[in-house]
Design brief:
16 helices, 57% helix, five-stranded parallel sheet, 5 strands, single chain, Rossmann fold, alpha/beta
Length: 327
């Protein structure tokens, strides 16, 4: 559980803005927390909710011990409603149920909060339904919308929210925390490229799925070099059976980008920046021989394009097939 002191270390600007609004009792009816994965959006939303509901508040700091704080931490407070994507999107039925719920008075107080994660995944119908909700705010209702990509949201929703922009964490400070958690230096560098969240990094470090994901990226690179005609077969037989949902596909593409970027770094003599292929010297040298600098720039461009398509919910097989055409 995070305190305001903790969050002030992680996200000082966002934390100070929210603390001042609480101190002055100027709570907005809707906030939009924008930031990459791992920047603390959920922690900040949870802490904000605790501050508004805590029975033993000390200044702006919730006690973390009362019944309300504990229930908010566990996600079980009756007046705080979380909405997460149902599959790949947030559907209109979810927003409709939320609106119905908010026609009733709070069970334990006059205040209610709803927190929507992955707000950029709202379907158009769901977004329009939410917009009507935002246009008629109740003074005792607060919306916390969390997103990694505000550009994917409709402008009319953005205009009705106070933007809280969460900054990427400082890589060196994050790497230091990972090393203090007994993660090896080479894994520290890779994990810090993939996430800014310490808990997520620690889970990835122990995750068998992630270990296999790294192996598949190496095998993909080997196949592209030694048996390029088999790349499409590799995608169908191995890649898409492991990288299934949108987040997994994105993580696979991110690993691919780091691997190909390592090859480019070797080309230009920037070996100190090599992260993923540092322990695979033979594969690295084979890749340098096989891929020219110009080709690597094209590949990196198409990985970014594949990531955008993945966020637009293009089928994972099609995303990878289209990318493979440019190897």
């Amino acid at each position: 559980m995070k305190t305001w002191e903790d969050m002030n270390q992680i996200q000082p600007l966002a934390s100070q803005l929210l603390m001042k609004s609480i101190q002055k009792q100027r709570i907005s009816h809707a906030y939009l927390f924008q930031g990459n994965r791992g920047t603390g959006k959920k922690d900040l939303a949870t802490l904000f909710a605790k501050t508004l509901f805590c029975e033993n508040i000390e200044g702006v700091e919730p006690c973390q011990r009362c019944n309300r704080c504990k229930r908010i931490e566990s996600g079980n407070h009756p007046d705080i409603h979380w909405i997460h994507p149902d599959g790949n999107t947030i559907k209109i039925e979810q927003i409709r149920r939320l609106q119905e719920e908010f026609t009733y008075s709070g069970l334990e107080s006059t205040r209610k909060i709803y927190i929507i994660t992955g707000t950029e995944t709202l379907t158009l119908n769901a977004a329009n339904r939410l917009l009507k909700f935002l246009e008629e705010p109740n003074p005792k209702t607060t919306a916390l919308l969390l997103t990694e990509n505000r550009e994917a949201m409709i402008p009319t929703i953005l205009s009705r929210c106070q933007l809280i922009d969460l900054q990427p964490l400082q890589p060196k400070e994050f790497q230091k925390k990972l090393q203090e958690s007994n993660i090896s230096p080479e894994h520290t560098l890779l994990l810090s490229e993939l996430t800014n969240d310490l808990d997520e990094a620690l889970l990835l470090n122990e995750d068998e799925w992630f270990t296999e994901a790294k192996n598949l990226v190496l095998k993909f690179l080997q196949t592209a070099i030694k048996k390029p005609a088999d790349v499409f077969l590799f995608i169908h037989q191995h890649w898409v059976t492991h990288f299934k949902d949108r987040n997994q596909v994105d993580q696979g593409l991110e690993l691919l980008m780091i691997a190909f970027r390592d090859v480019l770094y070797y080309h230009i003599g920037n070996q100190v920046s090599i992260i993923f292929l540092s322990l695979n010297e033979d594969l690295l040298k084979e890749s340098v021989i096989h891929f020219t600098q110009e080709k690597l720039m094209i590949i990196l461009h198409h990985i970014l394009k594949a990531k955008r398509k993945n966020r637009q919910y293009v089928h994972p097989v099609l995303v990878m097939e289209q990318f493979a055409l440019h190897l």
